[in-house]
Amino acid sequence: MTSHAALVARGWGKCCIVGCGNMHVEGKVLKAGDKTLNEGDWLTLNGTKGNVYEGQLKMIDASSENQTLMEFLKVCDSIRTLKVRTNADTPEDARKRASSAPKVSDYSGLNTFLRQRRRAAAFYPAQNDHL
How many domains is the chain built from? Predict the structure, then answer.
């Protein structure tokens, strides 16, 4: 399960973690459990897993500049049997995904349309038997 805020943030290229009930911000101080962090202290966020880490963790470059990653993805692409599909909210997102490996397709508009039609079918089943 995810939140709309997390989806919007991801579309902007930002990390968003919601539901951090143990985390409280008062002014420029963040408190989480027995930890207290001040403005300027580093946090590292894993938006996929929803984890928050104290400090600045080492990151790897996940862009096309990372030759090791690109070689690995080429190997994956050469043996895959399933195509990967992805959403793209902007033309720039579509260009990035179209040039990345493994091969991807943009079905954002279609996915949104189908979700809306299925939602409507729940309320008006007689008019939407074909969904």
Answer: 2
Per-residue pLDDT at 105 exceeds 50: no
Could you tell me the residue range of the domain that residue 19 belongs to?
4-54
> 27 in a domain, yes or no?
yes
pTM for the predicted model, two decimal places = 0.50
Q: pLDDT grade, residue 85 (50/70/90)?
A: low
Q: Is residue 60 part of a domain?
A: no
DSSP-H helix ranges across the chain: 4-11, 67-79, 91-98, 108-123
8 A C-beta contact, residue 33 and residue 24? no
26 located within any domain: yes
> Which amino acid, 104?
V
- Collect all residues with Cβ–Cβ distance below 8 Å to 114 and sequence separation of at least 6: 131
Return d(Cα 78, Cα 113) in angstroms, integer. Answer: 32
Q: Among 47-56, 65-74, 83-92, 96-105, which stretch is predicted with the lowest mean pLDDT?
A: 96-105
Tokens of 107: 């079905």
List residues bridging with 29 in a β-sheet. Answer: 26, 38
Please tell me the distance from the alpha carbon of residue 10 to that of residue 108, in angstroms, as a whole number: 14
